[in-house]
Amino acid sequence: MRSSLRGASGAVGTLVSAMVVLSLSVPALASDRGNDRGLPMRFELRKQGPAESCGADCKTYISASGAITADSGRDFARFVRTVDIKDATVVLSSDGGSVLGAIALGREIRKAALATTVGRMVALKGSSKDDIRAVYSPAADCESMCAFVLLGGVQRTVPAEARVMVHQIWLGDRRDDPTAATYSAEDLVLVQRDIGRLAQFTAEMGASMDLLDLALRIPPWEPLHAMTRDEIRRTKLATDEAAAPPAAIAATPPAIAPRAAPVTNGARATPIGGQRWAMVDRGGIASLARQHPLTVEGDTIGSFDLVVACGVDSDSFELSYIERRSGGEGLALPVKLDSVVLRTNGTRARLAVGASQHHSGPEELVSFAAGTVPASLIRDFSSPGKHSMVIETTSKGMVTIIRIGNTGAQQSLPKLVASCNKPIGARADISVSKTGGMAAVR
Description:
- The chain has helices spanning about 15-20, 50-55, 70-80, 100-110, 145-150, 185-205, 210-215, 230-235, 375-380, 410-420; strands spanning about 5, 40-50, 60-65, 90-95, 115-120, 120-125, 135, 140-145, 155, 165, 170, 225, 270, 280, 285-295, 300-310, 315-325, 340-345, 345-360, 365-375, 390-395, 400-405, 440.
- By secondary structure, it is of the alpha+beta class.
- The protein folds into two domains: about 5-235, 2-enoyl-CoA Hydratase, Chain A, domain 1; about 270-440, Immunoglobulins (Immunoglobulin-like, Sandwich), CATH 2.60.40.10.
- β4 (about 90-95), α4 and β5 (about 115-120) form a beta-alpha-beta unit.
- The longest helix is centred in the middle third of the chain and has 20 residues, at about 185-205.
- The model is unreliable at about 1-35, about 240-270 and about 425-440 (pLDDT under 50).
């Protein structure tokens, strides 16, 4: 099993705690996804063209597009032995992939004393087989572990049109629903070992540890973080830009007062589970519910519950969103929550915000939103296989985007459907003694 920086983290509490002890608190929407980006990374030599436009000064490029695998370093080493790579620039376009593969590839690029950049090569029509000419385009994404491959260049450039996107290291086979997964001591060893290797590699390449720190802040349930120009300079990801002055150290934020029990729109609280979707009793009515952390670039600012209840007919369900927000380091609480939008399997639904009020003084914002959604939306999300639901909230000056998996939904939805077919007074026939967390009940 190998960890990866792809997305796109409760049971997760153990792993997150380990990150915090190490002071390593840690997606996304790519625009330039060619058909080859999901395939293993391929290397191709390209000459700048057309030939008449650059003459004797035509640049040499190595197109490196696709997923980074454990073999990418060896593949590149074999490739450069077969071509003339003098003064070449490696052009990267990738969704990321293997941690160890990225480190090996970065070292091979440095060993060959090549430059790196983000982009893609667009082949020109009419090029001969022995002299393929291409035009360099900076409109590309370098995601996840690709950012660390970029460090391999002796000179590194990130054009303004390109995007470098990073997020937290995670076990690749559990990134679809990270809060529902379980993690062993061996898993912790794998992740922490790879973090150590990345740290060593980053220092070896002459970059700042701020790059690794930035990546490790973004949990796998959030979108990838697109690096700003200031971050690109500060982390020394690019060598052609002057480093920005050190940022001022922010004052320690005031302590957050203990939370009061959430009260939303006159609702009382009922425990729900946080690791998987499960049936709960909402005031005598069976519902399907799950809790999830609310984060902004890895900073925990609260939590939210999603509750699915019977609709007025078999073609709909009632969906409730209950959020408790306490803010975070350097993040002020908004006055109110403005909107909640849900997306899954290509379907989009907006919930109406019914209440959004401060409780316990200004330290906690409790919000409630609800709406009727098509039954097909919940059924598709709960169908066999790994499916995700994205919940996006907006408030003045802040947006949160959280991806939540469907663990437990497939097993529990039939129970909810069966309950919906019962008379109202007979719908609750489940125990709530084994659940934790809080959900609002009408």
